[in-house]
């Protein structure tokens, strides 16, 4: 699944266009490298998302095309530094 779509489906970012812009502005890294929106997300990838001064680091646990709102948080695990 594309990175921008994963961010939307997992509800880490509200809209796919916003996720796309975040990738274009290099605010999202996958396994330590800046990633494009077309990057193919796999289970086990570590994503780092910068929201202004705040940085969220997550590990991908599942990749699914459609997920209910209640189950979206089960797609990833937040990592602490």
Describe this structure in words.
The protein has 81 residues and is α+β, with helices and mostly antiparallel strands. 20% of the residues lie in helices and 27% in strands. The chain is built from 2 helices and 5 strands; from the N terminus they run H-H-E-E-E-E-E. Strands 2-1-3-4-5 form a 5-stranded antiparallel beta sheet, with no helix packed on it. The protein is globular. The mean pLDDT is 92. It comes from Candidatus Avoscillospira avistercoris. One of its GO terms (molecular function) is tRNA binding. Keywords: Protein biosynthesis, RNA-binding, rRNA-binding, tRNA-binding. This is RQC P-site tRNA stabilizing factor. InterPro entries: RqcP, S4_RNA-bd, S4_RNA-bd_sf.
Secondary structure: elements and pairs:
Layout: H1 3-9, H2 16-24, E1 28-30, E2 33-34, E3 46-51, E4 54-60, E5 76-79
Antiparallel strand pairs: 1-2, 1-3, 3-4, 4-5
Helix pairs in contact: 1-2
InterPro entries: RqcP (IPR025490), S4_RNA-bd (IPR002942), S4_RNA-bd_sf (IPR036986)
Family: Belongs to the RqcP family.
Pfam family, one: S4
